[in-house]
TrEMBL record, chain A:
SMART domains: AAA
Gene: rbsA1
Protein name (record): Ribose import ATP-binding protein RbsA 1
Oxidoreductase found in the keyword field: no
UniProt KW keywords: ATP-binding, Cell membrane, Membrane, Nucleotide-binding, Repeat, Sugar transport, Translocase, Transport
TrEMBL record, chain B:
Assembly and oligomerization: The complex is composed of two ATP-binding proteins (LsrA), two transmembrane proteins (LsrC and LsrD) and a solute-binding protein (LsrB).
Localization of this protein: Cell membrane
Organism domain of life: Bacteria
GO molecular function ontology, one term from the record: transmembrane transporter activity
InterPro entries, per database record: ABC_transp_permease
Keyword tRNA-binding among UniProt keywords: no
Record keywords: Cell inner membrane, Cell membrane, Membrane, Transmembrane, Transmembrane helix, Transport
Pfam families: BPD_transp_2
Chief site of localization: membrane
Descriptive protein name: Autoinducer 2 import system permease protein LsrC
GO CC annotation: plasma membrane
Length: 498, 323
C-alpha cells in the first residue's frame, strides 16, 4: 500500500533558525500515525507545512503520489487535508449549524434557508453520533467535549482523506478523552489517514499504529507503535545531552526567601501546595500543558485570587490576590505571553522598563527622570540590550530583547523573588543563553528564582530542584541529581504511579 | 559596553518640546499663517480675543476628554455634565449663595458624576461607552427636571466678570485654558499618575501585573474629566451670566474631535494635552476663519469632518509604517 501523504527531506527555517531539517512523514489510509516530540521539536511547524500555512524551504510534499508544490491552505483542504485544531476554531456566539456550514450556508439569492441549514447540519452531526443535538444551539452553550465533536464534524464536512488532530484532549476529562479516542479509531477504520499529535504518551500507545518522532527539528525515528514501550519512546524523544548553555550551579544556597504554605489556586478543588525557595536557589517547575504551572506563578504573584494559603517573603506575610502588594514585597513576574501580559507596546523602551519602579524613583509623585534614565541605562545596559535609543517603541524590538526589557523592569525594583514563566519562549538561541546567564547571576546574588518551562532541558539545566505539577497540584519534587527527563515525564503524566 | 544604546546628542528639537503632540501644533501654525494671509481681520486683537473665548470652554473639556481617551476609554457625558454643573451653580447663585460656594457646589456635582462613571468602569467592569452614554442622559435629564427647562437669571454681575473679564489684556478664559493645558501636560509627562495613564491605555493587564493601581487611576481619570466639564459649565454660565439647561449639548463629540485631530488615538496611550488643545484651537480657528471669510457654516462642518478622517488615516498610515 502506498501512503496518501508523504513528506521527504522537508526542511523549514525561520530566519537563521532551522525549525525542521530533513523530516520524513508518511500517512497511510486506515492508520493512525502519532507524531511525538518535546515542545520545540517542530511538531507545529510540520502540521503547518501539511496544511499549507507555512511554505517549506526544501524537500518534497506528495499527496496521493503526486508532488503538490507549495499548496495554499485552500488547496491543501481541497486535496483532502483536514485539521482539528488544538484551539477550537468555532465561533462561540453562532449556532452549531452556522458554524458547521460557515462559508457555504445554504441560501437562495443571498437569503438563508433555515430548514435546509438545519437538515444539512444534522446530517453532519450524525457522522459524529450527535444527531440528537439541536443545530440551533449556540456553540458557547456546549461542553468542550461536544464542541470538539462539532469541530470534527465540521472538518469531516469537507470530506478529507487525512485528518490531523493537534492536541485534541488538552481540555478534556478522562472519560471524554476515551470517547474521543474511540471516535478517532472509528474514523481510521473508515479509511481515513490520521495523524495524532499529543504530549500524552498513554494516548499514543492507546491509539497509534505507527509513531514518528521528531527531536530538535530533526527526524529521529519512525516505526510501528508496537516496537516501542513507554521508556524507549521517551528515550527516543529526548535522546540528547544537555548542552552547556546553562550556567554552572556553584551558588551558595541560603535562608528561605519565599515560603508558600497551604496554597490552593482558584479552580483547584482540593489539596494544597507547600514549598520553599531559598536565597540563591533556582526552583524549576515542570509539568504538561494545563497542569497548573502558570496558575501557580500567578497565584504567588497575586495576579489571580487564591482559594486558600499563605505566602511569605523573607519571613513577612504578603497579602495574596494583588499584584501591587506583591511588587512592593519584592516579587516580580515575567509572564509567558509578553505581548498580552507584559509589554505596553505603544510605549517606549524606557517607559516599559521603569513602570514597576516608578513609586521608588518619584518624589511627591513627580518622576525623577534623571534617576529613571540612569537606572534604565544601568539595567538595560547590563543586559546588553541592542537598541538605537531607549525612546524607540518597545514593539520594534525582537522577542529576546523584549524579554530583556521586562527583566530590567524587575531588576530595577530590586526584586527578591523572580518568577519566570517560559522565559525563552520565542527567543532565539543566542539571547536564550544570555537569559540563562542572567537567571544564574540573579540567583547567585541571593534572589529566589522560580522558572516554569515546557522545555524540559531548560528546567533541568537551570534548576537546583524541580517541582513537577499535575492537575493543579505538585505531583512530586526531584533534586537536581534525581531529575532526569524520564523521571519528570513519568511524574508529569502518571503522577509517579507509572 | 559598545553594544549599549548610543548616547543621543541633546539637540532640542520641536518634537522634544511638544513630544507626542507635535502633529496638531504644526497644522495649527499652518492654519494660522493661512488665515492671516487670507483675511486682514484675523490677526487683530479683537478677533483673537474672540477666538480665545470661543475655544477656551470647549478646549478645557477636550483636555478632560483626552485623559479618558488615553486610557482607551471615552466620556460621552462631558457635555451634559457641563450643563448640569453650570445650572447647579446658577441655581445656587440665584438662591443667594456666595459666589465661591456656588462655584464649588457646581464643581462638586460634576466630580460626583465623574466618580460614578469611573467607579462603574473600573469596578463594575462596564464599557466606558455605555456608562457615559447613560450618564449623558441622566445628567441632562436632571438639569431639565430641576430647572423646569427654563433659563436661570439674573445672576450677580460679579459672577459674569469671571469669564468676561481679562487680565493684562488677555481674556481670563484664555488664561484658564492655558493653565489647564500646561498643568495637564506636566501631569502627563512628569508624574507617576501620568505615566500610569499611558500604561493603562496601552495594556491594562500588563500595567496591573507591573503593580499599577489600575482601578484607582481609572476612577481618578473619570473624576478629573468630570471636574473639567464642571469648570467648563461654571465658565459657560459666567460667560452668558445665565444658567442654560441645554448648555453643552453635543460638546462631547466636539471634544472627541479635538482630541483626535490633535493626534490622540481612541485605542489609548497616544496623544498629549497640547495636542488636544491644538485640536480644539484648529476646530475653533476653522470656525472663526470661516465666519471672517463668509464661508457657509455647513461647509465648515464638512471640512471639520474631513479633517478628522484625514487625521486618523494619517495616524493609521504612520502606525503601519513603523510596525
Amino acid at each position: 500500500m502506498s501512503p496518501y501523504v508523504e513528506l521527504r527531506n522537508v526542511s523549514k527555517a525561520f530566519g537563521p533558525v532551522w525549525a525542521l531539517t530533513d523530516v520524513h512523514l508518511e500517512l497511510y489510509p486506515g492508520e493512525v500515525n502519532c507524531l511525538a516530540g518535546e515542545n520545540g521539536a517542530g511538531k507545529s511547524t510540520l502540521i503547518k507545512i501539511l496544511t499549507g500555512a507555512h511554505q517549506r524551504d526544501a524537500g518534497d510534499y506528495l499527496i496521493d503520489g503526486r508532488e503538490v508544490g507549495n499548496p495554499t491552505p485552500a488547496q491543501a483542504r481541497q486535496a483532502g487535508i483536514g485539521v482539528v485544531y488544538q484551539e477550537l476554531s468555532l465561533l462561540p456566539d453562532l449556532s452549531v449549524a452556522e458554524n458547521l456550514l460557515m462559508g457555504r450556508l445554504p441560501n437562495r439569492r443571498g437569503i438563508t434557508r433555515p430548514r435546509e441549514l438545519r437538515r444539512q447540519a444534522t446530517a453532519m452531526l450524525e457522522r459524529v453520533d450527535q444527531g440528537h443535538l439541536d443545530p440551533d444551539t449556540p456553540v458557547a452553550e456546549l461542553s468542550l467535549a461536544v464542541r470538539q465533536l462539532v469541530e470534527i464534524a465540521k472538518v469531516l464536512g469537507q470530506n478529507p482523506k487525512v485528518l490531523i488532530f493537534d492536541e485534541p484532549t488538552t481540555a478534556l476529562s478522562e472519560t471524554e478523552t476515551a470517547a474521543l479516542l474511540g471516535r478517532i479509531k472509528g474514523l481510521r477504520d473508515d479509511g481515513h489517514a490520521i495523524m495524532y499529535v499529543s504530549h500524552h504518551l498513554e494516548e499514543m500507545f492507546e491509539i497509534g499504529d505507527r509513531v514518528t518522532v521528531l527531536r530538535d527539528g530533526k527526524f529521529a525515528a519512525s516505526g510501528p507503535m508496537r516496537d516501542y514501550d513507554h521508556d524507549s519512546l521517551i528515550a527516543t524523544m529526548v535522546g540528547r545531552k544537555i548542552e552547556s548553555l546553562y550556567p554552572a550551579s556553584s551558588r551558595t544556597i541560603g535562608e528561605p526567601r519565599l515560603v508558600v504554605e497551604g496554597l490552593r489556586p482558584a479552580g483547584v478543588h482540593s489539596g494544597q501546595i507547600d514549598f520553599t525557595v531559598r536565597r540563591g536557589e533556582i526552583l524549576g517547575v515542570a509539568g504538561l500543558l494545563g497542569s497548573g504551572r502558570t496558575e501557580l506563578l500567578r497565584a504567588i504573584f497575586g495576579a489571580d485570587p487564591i482559594a486558600a494559603g499563605r505566602i511569605g517573603i523573607d519571613g513577612v506575610e504578603v497579602k495574596p490576590g494583588n499584584p501591587r502588594t506583591a511588587v512592593r514585597a519584592g516579587v516580580g513576574l515575567l509572564t509567558e505571553d509578553r505581548k498580552q501580559l507584559g509589554l505596553m507596546l505603544e510605549l517606549a523602551i524606557r517607559e516599559n522598563a521603569s513602570i514597576a519602579q516608578l513609586p521608588q524613583i518619584s518624589r511627591l509623585s513627580l518622576v525623577d527622570t534623571k534617576a529613571e534614565r540612569s537606572t534604565v541605562d544601568r539595567y538595560l545596559g547590563g543586559l546588553r540590550l541592542r537598541a538605537k535609543s531607549w525612546e524607540q517603541p518597545v514593539s520594534s524590538l525582537s522577542g529576546g530583547n523584549q524579554q530583556k526589557v521586562l527583566l530590567a523592569r524587575w531588576l530595577a525594583t530590586r526584586a527578591k523573588v523572580l518568577l519566570f514563566d517560559e522565559p525563552t519562549k520565542g527567543v532565539d538561541v543566542g539571547a536564550k543563553s544570555e537569559i540563562y546567564t542572567v537567571i544564574g547571576d540573579l540567583a547567585a546574588e541571593g534572589l529566589a528564582v522560580i522558572v516554569v518551562s515546557s522545555y524540559l532541558p531548560e528546567v533541568l539545566g537551570l534548576a537546583d530542584r524541580v517541582l513537577v505539577m499535575r492537575e493543579g497540584l505538585v505531583a512530586g519534587e526531584l533534586t537536581a541529581s534525581e531529575a532526569t527527563e524520564e523521571a519528570v515525564l513519568h511524574l508529569a503524566s502518571t503522577g509517579g504511579s507509572k | 559596553m559598545t553594544t549599549t544604546a548610543v548616547k543621543e546628542e541633546r539637540v532640542i528639537t520641536f518634537g522634544d518640546v511638544f513630544g507626542r503632540d507635535a502633529g496638531g501644533i504644526i497644522v495649527l501654525l499652518v492654519l494660522f499663517g493661512a488665515m492671516t494671509l487670507l483675511s486682514d481681520q484675523f490677526l487683530t486683537g479683537d478677533n483673537l480675543a474672540n477666538l480665545a473665548r470661543q475655544v477656551a470652554i470647549f478646549g478645557i473639556i477636550a483636555i478632560g476628554q483626552l485623559l479618558v481617551i488615553l486610557t482607551a476609554g471615552i466620556d460621552l457625558s462631558v457635555g451634559s455634565v457641563l450643563g448640569l454643573s453650570g445650572c447647579v451653580t446658577a441655581e445656587l447663585l440665584a438662591g443667594g449663595v456666595p459666589i465661591p460656594v456656588a462655584i464649588l457646589g457646581g464643581l462638586a456635582v460634576a466630580v460626583i458624576a465623574g466618580l460614578i462613571n469611573g467607579l462603574l468602569v473600573a469596578f463594575a467592569g462596564l464599557p466606558p461607552f455605555i456608562v457615559t452614554l447613560g450618564m449623558l442622559g441622566i445628567a441632562r435629564g436632571v438639569v431639565l427636571v430641576f430647572t423646569n427647562a427654563s433659563t436661570i437669571q439674573p445672576l450677580p454681575d460679579a459672577f459674569g466678570e469671571i469669564a468676561n473679564g481679562s487680565l493684562i489684556g488677555v481674556p481670563n478664559l484664555l488664561w484658564l485654558f492655558a493653565v489647564v493645558a500646561i498643568v495637564t501636560a506636566f501631569v502627563l509627562r512628569r508624574t507617576v499618575f501620568g505615566r500610569y495613564i499611558y500604561a493603562i491605555g496601552s495594556n491594562p493587564e500588563s500595567a496591573r501585573l507591573a503593580g499599577v493601581p489600575v482601578k484607582r487611576v481609572l476612577v481618578a481619570v473619570y473624576a478629573i474629566a468630570g471636574l473639567l466639564a464642571g469648570v467648563g459649565g461654571v465658565l459657560f454660565t459666567s460667560r452668558l451670566n445665565a444658567g442654560i439647561p441645554t448648555a453643552g449639548t453635543g460638546y462631547e463629540l466636539n471634544a472627541i474631535a479635538a482630541c483626535v485631530i490633535g493626534g490622540a488615538s481612541l485605542f489609548g496611550a497616544k496623544g498629549g494635552a497640547f495636542g488636544a488643545a491644538a485640536g480644539a484651537l484648529i476646530v475653533a480657528t476653522l470656525n472663526n476663519g470661516g465666519n471672517l471669510l463668509a464661508v457657509n457654516a455647513f461647509y465648515l462642518q464638512i471640512i471639520i469632518g474631513l479633517l478628522i478622517l484625514v487625521a486618523v488615516s494619517f495616524d493609521q498610515w504612520q502606525g503601519r509604517r513603523s510596525r
